[in-house]
C-alpha cells in the first residue's frame, strides 16, 4: 500500500469518529438567532452603508471605539455573481487615487521598487504573500507558509517542506532571518552565503522578527530573544508574539492564552505597556510610534483596520470599510512616517488603500480584478 | 468566492420549505460531519462547523433553486466556514502548538500506523490539511480543491506533494514491511 492509499484508508477510518450532528430544532433556533442579529446589524449600519457611495467610505474615527458595526457583506457563498449583492468595484474606485505606494511591492509577478524600477520574481514563485532580496536572488513566502529561496537566475536553492515558515529583515535591512523546519537562519542580505548562522529551535517555533540585532521567536507558549552567539532570553508576559519594533524594544503579542488580544511589552524592562482585547497586532510603524492592528467583527465577516499608539494602545485612526474586506491577517506595509498600506477587496476587485495616522485615506493603486481571497499584492518584507 | 453551480432565488429566505430541508439534512448530515471532523480533528469543533454550515443552508434553502447541486453547495459552505474559523483562530496559541510529528516513527502495528498518519494529518497547517482531506477523503480533483479553497491548482499540487513527502519520511512505508 502506498502512502496515498494509506492516507485514504486512515481518513475513511477516522471519519467514523465524527460526532452526531445537531437536530433540526437546533438549526432552527440558531437560524433564528442569526436572523435577529443580522437585522440588528443592518439597522446599526444604515448610515455606514450610505457612505459606500462616496469617497469618504472609509470612516475615520479618532476615538478609541470603532463605532457601530456596518452590516456584514453578504456571504460570498451565497452569491452567484459579483453583482448579486456583494460590494461592487465602485466601492474601491470611489476612493480618491493618491500617490503610488512608497514601498517595494509585488503586483502580478512584477516587483515595483522604491525608485520606480521594476523586476520580476521567478516564474515559479506563485501565491506570494511576502518576499525579500537575498544573496542576489529572492526569498519568497507563499500564502500557506511555504518558503523558497531562489538564486539570481531564478533557480530554486532551497525550500521548506512542511510547517509554516517565516521571514524577517533587520531594521537596517542588512540582515535577513528565515525559518526552515526547526532552524532559524540569519544571513547578510546582500552577501553570497558567507556568514549565515543557524539557530536550532523547537520544530513548532515561529520566527517573529528582529529586535535590534537580535531575533525574536515564539515557541511553546514563550517568546524568546536570541542574540548573535545563540544566547536566549525570554520576554516576560507574552505567550505569543506577532510584531517587533524597529527601535529594538517593543514586542507586540498576546498573553495568557488570549489569542485575540494585543499585549505590548518592553523587552528592555519587561514591563507590560498595555493590553487590548479583541484586536490582532500586525506591524509597528518604522519609527515605532504606531502599531497597525485589526479587529474582526461578527465572525470575521468584515474587518476594522486601525492605527494604534504603540505605547498606550489608544486608537489613533480607524478605517471602517463597509462593503469592503481586508483579510483577517492581511499583508500590510508601512510607508515612511505614519502611513499604512492595506490590500482591500470589494467584490471581485482589489486595490491598495493608504490610511494615515492623521485620518486621511486614499487609494495607492488602480483597482485590479482578482477572484481569489489572496490579494494580488504583496510587500517586500519590512523590519 | 461565488457558489458555482447553484442558482439562488430571491434573497431573504427564512428557512421555508422545512420538509425539504429536513429530508436533505437527514440524508447528508452524517457525511458533512465526517468531513468536518477530518478538517478540524476535533469533535467539538466539527459539531460547531456542521451547525454553522447547516444554519447557513437552512437560511438559504428557499433561495436554492437547483437542488441537484445542493451537496456541492453544502461542501462549499462547510469549507468556507472552516476557513473562516481557522483564520480567526490562527493567532491563538493552541493552534501553533499543534503536535506535528517531527521525527520518524518506529515501525508500528497496523492501528499504530493509522494513528501515526492521523496525528500527522492533524499536525498539518489548516489549509494543507484541507487540501489533503478534500483530495484523499472527498476525492475531489485538484481544480475542484483549488476552486473551493481559493488557491491555484499549483498550490494544491505543491501542498499535497509536500504533505506526502513529509508523510513518507515520518511514517514507514507499509509495503516495505509486508
User: Helices and strands of chain B: which structural class?
Assistant: mainly alpha
Number of strands of chain B: 0
Largest interface: A-B, 76 and 86 residues
- Fraction of residues in helix of chain B: 55-70%
Question: Which labels suit this protein?
Answer:
heterodimer, A: 383 residues, mainly beta, 8-stranded mixed beta sheet, 5-stranded antiparallel beta sheet, 30 strands, B: mainly alpha, 8 helices, globular, disordered N terminus
Write structural notes for this entry:
Chain A is mainly beta. Helix content of chain A is 11%, strand content 39%. An 8-stranded mixed sheet of chain A has the order 4-3-2-30-5-6-7-8, with no helix packed on it. A 5-stranded antiparallel sheet of chain A has the order 1-24-23-22-21, with no helix packed on it. In chain A, strand 15 (222-226) and strand 16 form a beta hairpin. The model of chain A is unreliable at 36-89 and 298-302 (pLDDT under 50). By secondary structure, chain B is mostly helical. Helices cover 65% and strands 0% of the residues of chain B. Chain B has 8 helices and no strands. In chain B, helix 6 (126-136) crosses helix 8 and helix 7 (142-149) packs across helix 8. Chain B is globular, with a radius of gyration of 18 Å. In chain B, 45% of the residues are buried. Mean pLDDT of chain B is 72; it is low at 1-16 and 91-110. Chains A and B meet through helix 1 and helix 2 of A and helix 1, helix 2, helix 3, helix 4 and helix 5 of B.
